[in-house]
Structures are given as structure tokens and as C-alpha cells.
Amino acid sequence: MSAPSGPLRVAIVGAGPAGAYAAEHLLHAGTNIEIELLDRLPTPWGLVRAGVSPDHQDTKAVTGGFEAVAASPQVTLRLGVEVGKDVSHEELLAHHHAVLYTVGAPGGRRLGVEGEDLPGSLAATDFVGWYNGHPDHTDLPVDLSTERAVIVGNGNVAFDVARMLTLPVDVLAKTDISDAALEALRTSQVREVVVLARRGPAQAAFTSPELLALMGLPDVDVTVEPASCLDEDVAMPRAGDARGYGRSVSLRLLRELAQRGPAGADRRIVLRFLGSPVAVHGDDRVQALTIGANELETGMDGRTVVRPTGDEERLDTGLVLRAIGYHGREVPGVPFDEAAGIIPNDDGRVTQPDGAQVPGVYVSGWIKRGPSGVIGTNKYCAQDTVDALLADHAAGHLTEPTAGGEAFGVLLAERVPRVVDLAGWQALDAHERSTGAGQDRPRVKVTDVQEMLAVTGGA
Amino acid sequence: MTYVIIQNCCNDAVCVEVCPVDCIHPRPDDPAFTEAEQLYIDPATCVDCELCVEACPVDAIYPDVLLPEEHKPFLEINAGYFELNAAVEA
User: What is the ipTM of this complex?
Assistant: First the structure.
């Protein structure tokens, strides 16, 4: 095999944190590497823009490092390009030594209960996209004329949604929440948000920092039901058991909440444990949710098993949000594990169902390991994948591309009316920030793709 | 005095890289890292050099004396992670 001559060319598909961290690691690996960073939207940074809650602006500052990566002369930003539609996986691979998928997990998991498709029953992931101005979700039919909303699931997405439904509008008005969501929340009738979890506090999916954020909400009572769920003693976590430590902190905070009791605030959040959704009811839209009570048992293998007690309760509600996890989507031409919602891989090297490596194809972030961890988790996930890619390149396992960056740019220009580059994104970013400055907000998001393209084109 | 990591920690661990006394845990090479809700500063080891504050991309690190009221619980939460380890090793 002849020694590689030109630069190593890598296409990264998905410009969220996983993609940005992968590009950063590649930049650290050397100067003879060309990186194409693609995204199907005209805006980069994935869930930092469209997932991280508008009231968590400090967290969004993580994009400062990503902007520096995008500004490197080794990186070409190509936004508004959808792989599988505008350009095929095979075409991408022909123009690069390697293709690294960091497409995340955009779909919400389903409950599998009767009535979950009634108007008023929504995926929390779509609701998050709606209030964050994601172009796919601007038309989401959100009706906030109900006094009670129920969120099924108690991970950090559930907590984000609970905060957004209970924060004072004057606080939200100082954020980069979408204008449409701000208007809808102004007239919201929601006074109670029930956050429903199948299991108990010791198995909670939320993290203690997010529980503290909930407890710190102004004029919102946070209560825990049933009170008996806090009786169970939890073993002291072992040294180095970071998750166990977090849960022990959460349990202590929940007990503080239970002791504090409600203060009679205008809005309340009920953290309800040991309950499963049984059915969503309504004639032409959601009117109620039946919750089945659960108890926990320790199974033969020592794991906690959820068992329904048979007791059921019907709660009146006009809004049910399912927040029981994200699920990946298939990229045409790339292997996909539908059950796990990930691209099957061996430490970031994409594999066929029989375990054989697919040469030149890699994966990182949620589409590699499933939707878990925080933003920085993706940095170390990306490091492992980039290490594998570079090792394969050094070993001569990557096929020389048949064409380079210039040809790739010509191909995209034929397929996509307007590909947004770094200057285009910077124009949109500046436009959003300057509109925001006039309203004492960090930015006012453009949420329509055509309008985005007009701004990026300098129109 | 010590520095304290608060709610919006993103676990990107640049603070761990710049810390001269290795007082921020879990480290990325620690198996606990992927399971950690946030990173913690050991008040018994921290030398108040402030390098982590400058490195943090999301402004999640404060000196204890300037900790905003709503983030006061993080003082105990940071310290507690190391007490856990000390209790087991003792």
C-alpha cells in the first residue's frame, strides 16, 4: 500500500457538541488534516442551541470553544446540508478518507399506551425544540389552557420542561426563548406540573444540580408524592461511585423538600414517584391521564423490579408530555440498530450486524453510545473515536478519496441552493444577538429556515 | 477558602487539565467520570489559584466567599464527594 500523500480528509456529520469536540480533537492531531463540518440546519451547535434550556444561558457559553474550532482554516463549515437527502453517504465517503457521524438522537421515545396520539399529548423533545426555536418544531400545536400538565419521566429534560412551564414570564422574556413560545407562555393557565416517575427516588433519572435548580424557582412550591417513597433507606455510596453520590445528594434534597412543605405559591411542581401512565383519555383532545401505582421489589439478580399494585388514579389534565428518553434515527446507507437507537460500533468504529468494521465510517456522541451524559461527556467520547480513526489512517486502512474539498464544494452547490458557511453563520449569529440587545435578551432566534438563509446571505 | 463547582458544570474537564494540585474529581481517566453528575473540588486540597475559573467555558466555578445564595448548597456537595472517599479509606 502506498503511503498517504495529501491531507487526511474527514467529514463530520452533525455540528452539535459531539461533532465540534471531534473536530477539536482532529485539530489537535495535526495541521495536515482537512475537516468538513456539516449540519442539516443552517445553524450549528445542535442541542446547545436547541436543547439547553433558555434559562441556562451560562451553559450555552460552551459554544465559545466551538466557534474557535469552526474558525480554524482547517475546518470548512457546511450548514443546511442533509446527508441522505442532499448528498448520499457514498458520495460523502468518496470525497473523504473518513466520515464521522455525530447526528445525535433527535426522536422521543413513545409510551405505548392508549390515547398517546391525542392532541395535547406531545413528546417533550418536540416541546423543547418548540420553546428553543428549532425550525422543525415551530408549528407544534401547544395548548396551555389547562391548569395541570403531566410530564412522564423524571430525567433532566422533564425538569427543564417543568421549569419552563412554571418560570415567571418576565424571567423568560430576558432569555433567547422563541418568540412564539414566549407569547404562548404569557397566557398559560398551567398552575400545576406533575413530574411522574415509574420508580422511586433512589432510581431517579434527574441529577442533583437540576433538582437544586427546580428548588430554587421563584414562587413555585415543589412537593414530593407519595411521602412514603422517601422512607426507603439507601446504602451509602462507595468511594468513586459518582452516580450513587449524586443520588444520595438528591435523596437528601428531596427529604428537605418534604420537610419544608408547600408555602402556598401560585404555581407548583409535584415530583410524583412510583406511578406509571396507564392510558390517556379524551374525546378530541387530552382530558385526563390514568396513573397506575407501583411498588418496588428486589429481583433474584439483586436488581430493582417495578410491580404495579393495581391501584389506579385518574388525573384531569390537558397536556401530557412524554420525557422518557431520546431515540436515534437511521442515516440512509449506514448500519442502524433500531432497538437501541444507535449506529452499531466498536469503540467508535461503525460495524455491520455481523460485527465486521465498515471501513472509513465512525460515530461519536449520542448516536454512538445512546442519549446519556452531559455536554462534556461527548468530549471524551469524541477523543476515543478520533483516536480510532487516526490509528486506522496510520495503519493504511482508510481509502484515498477520489476527489477533494473543491470538488465536494461544487457537488454541494449543485444540490443545495444555499450552503451556509462560517461567514453566513456569523452573519446570522450577529443578527440574532443585535436584535436581542435591543430587547435586553442574549439573542432573538430566527426560527424559519428561509428567513435564516436570507440573513446568512447578507440580504 | 476554596473554589466550588456549581449547577451548570458541563463536565468538559478543562479545569482538571489546568489544576496544579489535582483537586478536581472525578478525572476523565477515572471510571466514575462518565457517571458523574458534575465535577467536584476538594476543599482540603484546593490552593485557590483560580486557574480553573479562567479555564471553565461555562462560568461554573466560584470562590466560596462569592458563591451566590442559590448556589450555597454546592459548598457541601463539592466537599461531600471527597468525604465519601475518605470515609471508605479510613
Answer: 0.92
